[in-house]
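User: Predict the complex.
Assistant: Input components as received:
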Amino acid sequence: MGMKFKSTGILPGFGLTMGFTLAYLSLIVLIPLAALILKSTTLTWAQFVQEVTSPRVMASYKLTFGASLVGALINSVFGVIVAWVLVRYEFPGKKLVDAMVDLPFALPTAVAGITLTALYAPTGWIGRLLEPLGIPVAYTPLGVVVALTFIGLPFVVRTLQPVLESLDPEMEKAAVSLGAGRWYTVTRVILPTLAPAWITGSSLAFARAVGEYGSVVFIAGNMPMKTEITPLLIITKLEQYDYAGATSIGVVMLVISFTLLLAINWLQSRTGVHRIH
Amino acid sequence: MEMAPRVDEVKTYPVLDPARALTEPRWVRWVLIAVALSFIALFLLVPLAQVFASALDKGMGYYFNAVREPAALSAVKLTLVAAFFSVVFNSAFGLASAWAITKFRFPGKSLLITLIDLPFTVSPVVSGLIYVLLFGLQGLLGPWLKAHNLHIIFALPGIVLATVFVTFPFISRELIPLMQEQGSEEEEAAMVLGAGGRQIFWKVTLPNIQWGLLYGVILCNARAMGEFGAVSVVSGHIRGLTNTLPLHVEILYNEYDFTAAFAVASLLTFLAVLTLIAKTLVGLKYEKSRQTPAAQAESGIA
């Protein structure tokens, strides 16, 4: 970059820390990502479009984005209830439940994958109950939704919790003193205040779900055109030495992640909600 | 404070009773707690129970054999090595980037922060793919690496690189807001008193951010040990050589040795539970250390 960095501040170490930061960022992130973009430019535009819009790839987008959206919606509904209960009510075991919410962050995705598959397989603890009702979960798109709901669970709760905690109690009192009932206060005063954080948390869950691989591949069954997610398709193409195909889909995924990141950053800068991991 | 209303006034305007109007009716609270707990139980507790039930399916003997066989032990070793490097490298990066970003003003700062965040949203599979395209046989540097007999993909360096990539922002994103909040006054005071850069860092900054750093290290370590997608792409699945614990779980599972797969998975589940405990305990210390001196003084007065 031709930009000349000029620092203000009297402390030492700008050159050293900035140099290391930029070098490390370039080596680990920027140059490898550039390699992906560079590799994709060896294709013509028509080839690229053909790769990323073939029927099998289109089917995988539909599943990936559809299931991610449903998972994020499920989490947005239950996430707000869990956050509300954890912040507002007292019950035994509350601290334990609070700590457990992060389990999907801490549990390796492959473990989540085989565990959910065992649970929802036709002979599993939960699958056994759903099978007679005619609701197969494992090896169907519904299984993908279950996995993506699991890995997205902490995002909405953890984004909403600090916002709920910092809500000014005077606001609710004011609503009450103006004659609002509880239902009215919650739906017209509290929930609208939570909306930005709610959307942020749901978007984080969605973004995470779109790229997710480990927890999904076991439960999905991975049938082309039916239960094959886009990240898996990249691996399949790589294993077939179809580098053009893998690279093209990789670029599409990268552009989508970058767009989601910018959208979420924009949401956060507007709402002052800090990101969580 | 407002004056207590007379009894007949309360009867006239029951909706103004603040105690009732500031929380939900008892039955609503019960229903919400029940819904939240059922959701948590279904999605978190039942899977946890499933891991251990499946792991012990064939008894303790089978369990211990599965976690002690050579392939499992070499997977443990490789996982520890990859996690070690990603914690060390990303700690150094976290400290350097947070220092540069929070202690100085320069153009392009928000772009830099966005770029640091980027690995969070990149699919793990894409994270592995970029290294294959760079270092793989068909990759940009592939021919050169082959000529010099250097192995990155399907070898330890590739696994370390992919793990470092997926955990890249964890420590940095913990330290940047923390050091932003704390400001530079203490460091500047130390400098005025004649302290050098190294002294300022070790004696002033590090004690102030130690809990935040540890918190970031816990998150980074957990993700590093559990990473699957990115490592799966670059590892080549060479048993006993390039298999981390999560990859070993996958191999056992695909060989239909479910009990052994869950036995090895239970090790990773222990790790997850330990992570949650450590995260909660360190989180408490961290919150406390985060309170600014002004806030502490204020709460002391109140």
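Chain B has one domain: 60-297.
Let me know if you want any component modeled separately.
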